[in-house]
Design brief:
It contains 10 helices and no strands. The chain is mainly α. Keywords: DNA-binding, Transcription, Transcription regulation.
Length: about 210
């Protein structure tokens, strides 16, 4: 591992070097956006050569993917905190989706999840097996007793896939003119929420 450059503070391990490259890439994305961030930008940010960066990542897309993955973890923490106290599965899913629709487009690091194929959660990779499994793990963290709501473990993957597909559509392909959030909530309440409510509740008109 090279010990020159790095702003005079060489990393102590390969793991530290990789994390500092990821952090530098995140800063570049904040300034320029993911699409305009190059490997040269990252190397300049760190005060190292391109070859030094290549020792740890084969291409800029791999680094951006790691930025997206780490951003996804932080984002899910915030999402779960936002949902605390909402135990109803339909309400939690609708509110969670609205939180995503509001938040993802406004933050450059989260938006990288929409711009790369191998992102951990959203975007064009949102329907891969790994992404759906990630979505199911995310649902496990919701403050919802899924079993008590009649939603089995084997059904969470299907729910995760539907959520990922809908989120990708809402965020990447907004309506023209864009829907207000109240309109999106109304759509989800009408067409998604009923699938998450027990049949007995639906049969009695919600009573």
């Amino acid at each position: 591992m090279a010990h020159h450059g790095w702003g005079g503070r060489p990393p102590a391990s390969d793991a530290e070097a990789r994390q500092r490259i990821v952090d530098a890439t995140a800063r570049c994305i904040d300034r320029h956006g993911a699409a305009k961030t190059t490997l040269s930008d990252v190397a300049n940010e760190l005060g190292v050569t391109r070859q030094t960066v290549y020792r740890h990542f084969a291409r800029i897309g791999d680094i951006v993917g790691e930025v997206a993955a780490q951003g996804a973890e932080s984002f899910v923490d915030r999402l779960v905190a936002h949902l605390q106290g909402i135990g109803d599965p339909a309400e939690a899913v609708v509110e969670g989706m609205l939180f995503c629709v509001r938040t993802i487009p406004t933050e450059p690091r989260l938006s990288t999840m929409l711009q790369i194929r191998d992102a951990a959660a959203f975007g064009r990779g949102a329907t891969t097996a790994d992404a759906i499994a990630y979505g199911a793990r995310m649902l496990h963290r919701f403050p919802v007793d899924w079993a008590a709501a009649g939603i089995g473990e084997d059904e969470l993957s299907g729910l995760a896939e539907i959520i990922m597909r809908l989120l990708t559509s809402f965020v990447e392909h907004p309506s023209d003119p864009p829907h207000e959030h109240d309109r999106i909530r109304a759509l989800l309440d009408r067409w998604l929420a009923p699938a998450l409510r027990p049949p007995a509740v639906l049969a009695h008109g919600g009573r």
